[in-house]
Amino acid sequence: MTRAWKSLRAPILILDLSALTFCDSSGIGELLQARHQGLNEGVRLILTGIQGNLARRLTLAGLIHVFEVFPSVSEALEAA
């Protein structure tokens, strides 16, 4: 995440999580921290490709609606 923030040159950060096979509570914590940082810095954080383990955990924790989520990067880019 640090590299993503340092290289950011636009007010939008799209994270493609489609290759993610597992995410535990520390990973979700990182996503929440990124959301918080985005809000503080005026950066729109968009998550794409959420599936499997991560989708289940975010849904069970009631956090899926905290994030701006799109099925694919192309759909996120269209909305951005």
TrEMBL record:
Leader sequence segment: none
Record-given protein name: Anti-anti-sigma factor
Domain STAS: 1-80
Pfam families tied to this protein: STAS (PF01740)
MF terms (GO), sorted A to Z: anti-sigma factor antagonist activity
Annotated organism of origin: Streptosporangium becharense
